[in-house]
Design brief:
Helix content is about 45%, strand content about 10%. It has helices at about 5-10, 20-40, 55-60, 95-100, 105-115, 145-160, 170-180, 185, 205-210, 215-235, and strands at about 80, 85-90, 125-130, 165-170, 190-195, 200-205. It has a six-stranded mixed sheet with strand order 1-3-2-4-6-5, with helices on both faces. Strand 5 and strand 6 form a beta hairpin. The protein starts with a helix and ends with a helix.
Length: about 240
């Protein structure tokens, strides 16, 4: 039997074993090497999927992987409770978000706050992020290459947060998260699942769209009630 495996079994059974001084010295050297290697890893070169919240935010702030970094005022990482049950995903920062460095501010943000309050939540109880972390010029739609470059950041946010429910607001976020091109009218009002996870995903209209089309607010309220229902089922 392999010595390491034998040692594992004996330790699990509560049997104390003895090591020679050479074995003890070798173990200390190995542990020291591992600690040194871990401490010297540069977060800037680590895979995104290994980053902590703080490292991820720093990576986003320093990102120059696409042309959007040339025109941004600052990146818009995300805000809210990093242990929240609900993750809200939008499209990209607008002018207000670009200036303040926070998603969903201005009139659309105020409406989102009111929508959350309608189901008994406030902004501080959820986490809010966007597909893109930089503002596209003139609020144009994200280009495919920009989405491909930026979405690993969002995927890591989802993994770190592990939300109980995801609410996608707007066409761009919905199409990306569900990998579809169907219309919002056909997609909303149903319960989906995010990728290969078991996280329920609900889609609804973007608050900016609701400001232009207030008649659709009742449909969005119905979507929010579905979110609330799922949260209550989980709790």
């Amino acid at each position: 039997m392999d010595h390491a495996l034998r040692q594992h079994y004996l330790t699990a059974m509560g049997i104390q074993t003895w090591q020679t001084r050479d074995q003890q010295a070798c173990q200390v050297v190995t542990e020291t090497q591992h600690q040194t290697q871990t401490a010297t890893i540069d977060p800037a070169t680590m895979p995104v999927a290994m980053l902590t919240w703080e490292q991820l935010q720093q990576r986003v702030q320093a990102c120059t992987q696409c042309e959007l970094h040339r025109s941004r005022t600052q990146t818009v990482f995300g805000v809210g409770d990093r242990q929240a049950n609900l993750l809200i995903v939008g499209e990209a920062p607008g002018a207000h978000e670009d200036r303040q460095g926070k998603p969903f501010v201005g009139r659309a943000g105020q409406l989102l706050n009111s929508m959350l309050q309608a189901i008994g939540l406030n902004r501080e109880q959820v986490y809010i992020a966007n597909i893109l972390k930089c503002r596209p010029p003139n609020n144009r739609d994200p280009k495919p290459e920009e989405t491909r470059t930026c979405t690993p950041f969002l995927e890591r946010q989802v993994a770190l947060l592990a939300p109980k429910v995801i609410l996608a607001v707007g066409r761009i976020a919905t199409h990306y998260l569900l990998n579809t091109t169907s219309s919002m009218g056909r997609l909303r009002g149903k319960r989906y699942q995010f990728r290969d996870t078991e996280i329920p995903l609900i889609v609804s209209y973007h608050p900016a769209y609701l400001l232009r089309s207030p008649r659709e607010k009742m449909k969005s309220y119905a979507d929010l009630l579905l979110v609330k229902q799922i949260l209550e089922e989980i709790n």
